[in-house]
Amino acid sequence: MKRLVLLANILIGGFALNAQTLNDGLKALDFEKFEHARNIFKSITQKEPANGEAYYYLGQAYNSLFKPDSALISYNAGLATAPKTPQLYAGLGELLLEENKIAEAQAQFDKAIALCKNKRDEFVNAKGLVAIGSGMLAGETKLLAQASALMEEAYKISKEDYDVLTTTGDVYLEMADGSKAATFYNRATVLDPNRPKAFAKIALIWIRVKNLQVAKEALDTAFAKDPNYATAFKNQAEFYSVQRKFALAKESYKNYLKNSEVSSANQLRFALILFKAKEYAEALINVEEARANDKTNNIYINRLYAYSCYEAGNLKNDAPTFQKGLTAMETLMGKVATEKLTSSDFEYLGKLQAKTGKDSLALINLNKALNIDANKTDVKVEIAKI
Question: How many domains would you assign to the chain?
C-alpha cells in the first residue's frame, strides 16, 4: 500500500512539474516562441474554460503566427465564457485595425475601455489598458494619441508594472518620441534590472536614429542579462541590416531562430525587417525561404512575396520578377475577402500591372488604393506616370 501511495505521489509530482502556467506561456511569447505559446495557452483554456486572459493570449499567439482567423475564434470563445475580460475586446479591436477598419476597431476598443473602469468612471484595470494600448499599435493606421493617453492612465494605476512601462515605451517609440520611450524603458530597467526586454527595446530607439554605438551598448546589456534572449538577436539583425552588413544580420537571425523557434512566421519577420529597411533584394530572398517552408499557403507570406517582387524587380527593371509578383498578387486577391484587402494590396497590384503592360487595369487598382487611403502621394505619382 505504501508503495502505491509513493508511486501516486511521484506521478502527481511529475504532473505538477509538467503543468504549464500562464507565466510559462507569457515567457514563450516574450521569447517569440509563438507555436509553443499557442500550445500552452490552448492547454490552459481546455482546463480553465472561463480563463479570459488565457484566451486573449492564445489569440495573440495565433496572430503572431499570422493566423488572424484563429485569433478571432479564440477571442470570441473567450467572450462566450468570460465576457467581462477587456483584453478580449482589445484583441478584436487589434484584428480590425490590422484590416484598417478603424471605426469597427474603435467600437471594440471602447468596449474594452469601459470594462477597465469602475462605477465612478475611474480607470482601475492596468492589464486591460496594456492590451488596448498594444492593440492600438496594429495596422497601417495606428491610434497613437489615444493609446498614449490610455497608457498614461495605466501608469497612474500601476507604476511598478513592467508591462505597463514597456508598452508605454512602445507607444512613444511608434510616435517617434524617443525621449519619452527611453524614459519608460529606463524605468522598466530600474524596476527589474535583470530582465533583458527593456534593454533590447532601448536598442531599437537608437537603431532607428542610427546612433549605432549606443544601440550596440544597449544590445550588449540585453545579452548580458540573458545571452539567449531571442528578441535581442532579432534587434541585432536589424542593427546589422541598417548598416548593410547582411552576412552578420543573417547570423544574428539564425541565432534568433535558434532561441525562439524555426517557423515560417519567424522567417517572415526577418524578411519584414529587411523590407522596411528597403533592402528589397535581401527581403525577397528571405521571404522566398519562408514561402518554401510554409505548408499553409499563408496570405501574409504571399503578400510580402508579391510586394518584394515589385521592389526587388524595380532595382533592375527585371520583367520576370515583376511577372512572379503579379501572379502572386492576383492569387492573393482571389483568395482574400474584399473587405480584408488593404490599400497597399491594390497599390502593389496596380504597380505590378503597370510594369507588365496592363495600364488600364493598373489605373483601376491604383485608384482603389487611393479610395482607401487618400494620403498615398506615391500612388498619385504612379497614376500620373501612366
Answer: 1
